[in-house]
User: What shape does this take?
Amino acid sequence: VTANTHRNIATAHDDQKFGFGVASGEAAEAVRLILRSGRLDLRGLHSHIGSQILDLDGFTLAARRALDLLAEIAAEHGVALPELNLGGGLGIAYTSADRPLAPGVLAGHLRTVVSAGCADLGLPPPRLAVEPGRSIVGRSGCTLYRVGTVKPRAGLRTYVAVDGGMSDNIRPALYDGVYSARLAGRVSPAGPMLSRVVGKHCDAGDVVVRDDYLPADLRRGDLLAVPGTGAYCRSLAHNYNHVPRPPVVAVRDGQARVIVRGETEADLLRLDVG
Ligand SMILES: Cc1ncc(COP(=O)(O)O)c(C=O)c1O
Assistant: This one.
């Protein structure tokens, strides 16, 4: 199944490292080995086609392929596996142009596809499971950056460098993750300025927001907010260039509280044994 997403986060086609191939017969062979083992209890099938998926097509195809395999297993072994796990992948909006599926729409659709497929194939409907990750936590996070330099490139755009970058959010460098930025901390009367928000690391690919409009009076010291960083940002954060990772602050009902303190140089050096 080729999910409609970036190739580095599409996980269900043959030419990559994940899972058992269905067309190649690997999945059927894995089922045979498990059933023969006498030690393993085969509960069902699992598929995860990829991440940040904004349409239904890949999920539909994955569900149908999994049901076909369930039917083949039932025919070969006389067992109706009780569970079908259709993985995660439900995308979220990173910019105002993104139109993500509502969880209820995807859930209802999967139930319909699975019920209809089971009726066609003469299978008892399996217990359905999903593993949403980003769609649960992605929108809960927002990264705040302080502007360091503002550099206009005539006829192109303005580069806005901030005090973070690919060490706290590697998604743009890793698979062209798209984000948006807003001026936080003050209201600006200035018109829009085509901007690229870049990090403090020594790579031209150290981009936080590739294209967005920021106020033309943006200046050093301003705060920028980048929403949608609650998934795959802190968990992928690293110490490239020995940049310490920033703190995580929880906000509720107008109250802020540090829940993960920021790293210090002492933290970075503590593993050195001299
Ligand atoms: C097996 C599996 N299930 C679920 C997920 C969650 O995916 P997402 O955050 O895109 O919903 C992942 C993410 O890598 C995964 O590998």
Summary: The chain has a mean pLDDT of 95. The helical segments are 26-37, 57-77, 103-121, 134-137, 171-175, 265-269.
